[in-house]
Amino acid sequence: MKTEIDLNIYTNIALESSLKLIKDYSKKPFEDATPIPSALNHSVEFYNHEQSRIFNQEWICIARCDEIPSSGDYITHEIAGTPVLVVRQESGDIKGFINACAHRFTCLVKEESGHAYAFTCPNHAWTYGIDGQLNHAPFMDLKSDFDVKENSLELIHIETWEGFIYLTLSQKPSKKISDSLGTFQKNIVGQYDMGSYKTVIRESMSWNTNWKNLIENFTESYHVPIAHPKTFAKHKKRIKDYECGEDSNHYCYHLAPQESENGPGAAHPKNTNLKGKWRRTMVDFCIFPNHLVTLMPDYLWWVSVMPNGVGQFKANWGVALPPEVINDIAEKDYESWLKDMISYMNTANEEDKALVEGLYKGSQSSRLPSGTYHPIEKNLWQFMRYISKITG
In CA terms, which of 86, 275, 307, 344 is 20 to 30 Å from 148? Predict the structure, then answer.
C-alpha cells in the first residue's frame, strides 16, 4: 500500500542535491535568509545521512541525572537504531553501554527504566554486573580459551551537564559537552542552577513529522501568542522583547522577560541565585542537534527528539522544578497538582503538534514561495547552519 510520503516529490531526491541546497541556503546572512529547504524534511537519502553524521556521532541528551538517583538505577534509550543502557554505579558515577549481550548481541534490557543488581541476557543467561563486566556465562567453561574479562558490555561515552545525561555513539568524540557549552553556561543558564531542579514528570510522544520541524518550532517564540492561548501565551511576553543569542556551532537560544515579578514564571522568594530581570526571564534553547529546553525561574521543560523515519519522530520529555517550588506544594495536594501540570503540558504539546505536523505537510508541496524569517526566528537560521556544517 502506498503511503503519503511515497507520493512526495522530495522523497527520492539525491543526497548531493540536498547537500548543495542546504549549503547554498546557509551561506546567506540572516537578513537575506529563507527557511530550510523543503527537501531536507522529506528526502530519504538525506535522512539516512543525518543518522550517520548526526545521531551516530553527536552528543545526545537522554535523561535527567536525578531520574537514576541510586546505584543500580537504569534508563534505556534508542539512538539511530542502537539500543543503549545507562546505569548509576556504586561510586555514584553514571556509565553507558550498548544494550546488547556480548555473546550474540541479544538486546539485554527491554524495560525503559528500573533498578537492577545485575543484568541477565534472556537468551543464554549471560549475566553482567551494573559495571558492565561479565560475571557468569553458563557452560562457557567448555570453550578452553574463553575469558570473562574479554566479554564485557560495550562501553560508550557519557557526560553530564547541568543535571542532564548526554551520551555519544562515537568511539572518539571530537569535543566535550562541558567545553562546547562553557560560555553559554557561564553567561546565561548557569545562574539558574538547573542541576538542582527535581524531575517530576517524564513522558514520551510520537508525531507524524520530520524531527527538524519540532526543533524549528521550539526554537522560535513568534508563534506563542497565536498558537498557545491556553498555555504559554498567558505569560504575556511581548514579541518585541525577545532577544536571540549569539551564533554558535553547538547551541542556539532566545530569551524574554515576562511582565509579572510574582506567580507562575517568576522566581520563588527563596531563590537567591537570580537577580534583576533574570528573576522573571525565560530562556528557550536548543543544544544541537536535538535537546530542547524551556528554562524558567520556577520550572524547566525539556525534550529530546529522536527521528523514527523521515516523517515521524519519537520524543522523550520531562518537567523539573527547583526545590523551593516543590517544597511549597503540600503533600496532600501533590497528586492533584501533578495531574494539573501534566494536563497543562499535554495541552501545550497538542497546540504545537498541529503546527508541526502542518509544517511537514505543507512543505512537501512542489510549488512554494521562497519564504522568509521574522527577526526573532534567527535561531532557525542558526540551526540550519549547524545542519549544513555537520552533514557537509
Answer: 86
